[in-house]
Amino acid sequence: MKIIILLFIFLSLILSFSSVVYADNQIISDVSWPNCKANLSNIAKIGIVGVNGGLDYSYNSCLFNEIQVFHNSYALYLNTGYPGNNYGLKYQHYPKNCRVNNYLCLAYNYGYNDALKSIKYASSQDTHSFVWWLDVETDNSWTNNYQENRASLQGMINALKKHIFMPTIGFYSYPAQWILITKNWQNHSPIWVATALTNKKEASAYCNDSFNSGFVWLTQYTTKFDFNYSCLPKKIYDFKIRISGK
Hints:
Helices cover 34% and strands 22% of the residues. By secondary structure, it is of the alpha/beta class. The chain has one domain (21-83, 112-244): TIM Barrel (Alpha-Beta Barrel). Strands 2-3-4-5-6-7-8-9 form an eight-stranded mixed β-barrel. Strands 1-10 form a two-stranded antiparallel ribbon. Strand 7, helix 7 (200-204) and strand 8 form a beta-alpha-beta unit.
């Protein structure tokens, strides 16, 4: 009986997570706090929803309402950043116990706690996903030390891996900004390319523009809303398929 109850709880947890299907030529929408008052009835029905309010350690107040648009077919994205050691000191002792002059450790803790707080906020909004994107842009605050910036991002990755079951984690960025922030970090993760373009045809050309040696999954273009072209021939991020290995 205990085994049956545990299995039921486990399956309920699985079903509470979104599943995302990306196929070649598919269009995906992404929305966040700027779209809280927008009419989203005409956007694509597969989406990527921002957990944060434009900056790290901030929150999208309409997260729960926005995920309803996609009927459980959505991924999530987090804003990233590292504004420096004074901020890292606020998280000096968790998850690592850092010395005050161990700047990489402080940056790691900052990123870890940033992602952890976002995970907890998403959960409080009944929002769950196996696919998470980290938004790496110069609009957010970064140090001039690329190693510290990388350490903060690694902290976020590790928090997601620890607190989300079998997550898929990728990076959203523009190649020049990625180089500036991370000094061309080649981590082979999935890529979502920001293009600043306004049509699908031009955006699709960025499917070959990998900035970290990873595979480009999506390229973004903007009309009235943000849309994304899927570069993948066929990728299914559905828990049942992934767990079975088929």
